[in-house]
């Protein structure tokens, strides 16, 4: 399975922060925002990752992420000239996806759900036919794409910003598809706002009875860090977990070590190449525990 991080857009909701800086490099507590979606893909066993971003942001992201070898993954880069909808990612990434299945994550979405990732059968996840969605219970579902369910908990509807939501479960920015998603995306018609909508794509799979939903368990956290308030909330959540547990959320180097993507020697070499700070001291402690 391949992975795509959609890190495009103008970041207008975060203006003036994004006037001089790429949104995905803004800090979420102690790490750039891009670390969190990358870490989520790594936790799902995905090591071949395409970063789709703007012409202005591709070089800064390359300078930070490099080729991914220090994490035991491979980063590729693709430019999206202007935002034309989430589903366009599959058209831009067609050559990258090839004959594989693919998981897409939005570059400003932050997930923390250790119990969920432990429950997922990664082999089944990576070979599942159709569409796999992730949902999160929210108190204001009318702001999101919302799932409807039957009595057995099977998804029966996906509605964008409904006036009368059928549930409190919002579809979050993490989606997995079999290879036919590329052709489906090519045949989507732009919405009234001129974009290829991910909800329209998901509804095609729903009509074919090919949708699986992973509801994030109670105690999980999800943030769309695309506004100043949600960016602050995400940072406070990550900082609080760090303060009380002494454990970091979505540290790519730590995930790479414990998933076996890199050896302990490679891990230590990478730490040695970075100036000493609180973050590297944490990683040294993790290496010692391991």
Report on the structure:
The chain is an alpha/beta fold. It has one domain (2-132, 174-245): Alpha-Beta Complex (Spore Coat Polysaccharide Biosynthesis Protein SpsA, Chain A), CATH 3.90.550. The protein is 34% helix and 23% strand. It is built from twelve helices and 13 strands. It has helices at residues 35-43, 58-65, 88-92, 94-97, 114-119, 122-127, 181-186, 198-207, 228-245, 252-258, 264-272, 278-289; strands at 2-7, 27-28, 31-32, 48-53, 74-79, 102-106, 109-112, 131-137, 145-149, 155-160, 169-177, 211-215, 221-224. The strands form four sheets. A seven-stranded mixed β-sheet has the order 5-4-1-6-11-8-12. Helix 11 runs antiparallel to helix 12 (278-289). It starts with a strand and ends with a helix.
Features:
alpha/beta, 34% helix, globular, two-stranded antiparallel ribbon, 290 residues, 12 helices, 7-stranded mixed β-sheet, Spore Coat Polysaccharide Biosynthesis Protein SpsA, Chain A
């Amino acid at each position: 399975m391949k992975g795509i991080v959609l890190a495009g857009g103008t970041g207008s909701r975060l203006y003036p922060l994004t006037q001089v800086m790429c949104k995905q490099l803004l800090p979420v507590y102690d790490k750039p925002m891009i670390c969190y979606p990358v870490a989520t893909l790594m936790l799902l066993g995905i090591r071949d990752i395409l970063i789709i971003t703007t012409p202005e942001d591709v070089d800064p992201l390359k300078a930070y992420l490099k080729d991914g070898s220090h994490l035991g993954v491979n980063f590729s880069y693709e430019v999206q000239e202007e935002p034309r909808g989430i589903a366009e990612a599959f058209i831009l990434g067609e050559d990258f996806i090839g004959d594989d299945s693919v998981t897409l994550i939005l570059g400003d979405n932050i997930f923390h759900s250790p119990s969920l990732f432990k429950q997922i059968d990664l082999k089944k996840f990576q070979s599942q036919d159709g569409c796999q969605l992730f949902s999160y219970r929210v108190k204001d579902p009318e702001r999101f794409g919302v799932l409807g369910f039957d009595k057995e908990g099977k998804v029966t509807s996906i509605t964008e910003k409904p006036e009368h939501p059928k549930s409190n479960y919002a579809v979050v920015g993490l989606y997995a598809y079999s290879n036919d998603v590329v052709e489906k995306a090519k045949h989507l018609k732009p919405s009234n706002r001129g974009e290829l909508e991910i909800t329209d794509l998901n509804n095609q799979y729903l009509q074919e009875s090919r949708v699986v939903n992973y509801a994030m368990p109670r105690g999980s956290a999800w943030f769309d860090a695309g506004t100043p308030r949600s960016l602050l909330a995400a940072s406070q959540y990550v900082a609080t977990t760090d303060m009380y547990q002494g454990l970091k959320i979505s540290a790519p180097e730590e995930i790479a070590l414990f998933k076996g993507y890199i050896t302990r020697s490679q891990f230590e070499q990478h730490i040695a190449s970075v100036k000493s700070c609180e973050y590297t001291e944490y990683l040294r402690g993790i290496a010692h525990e391991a």
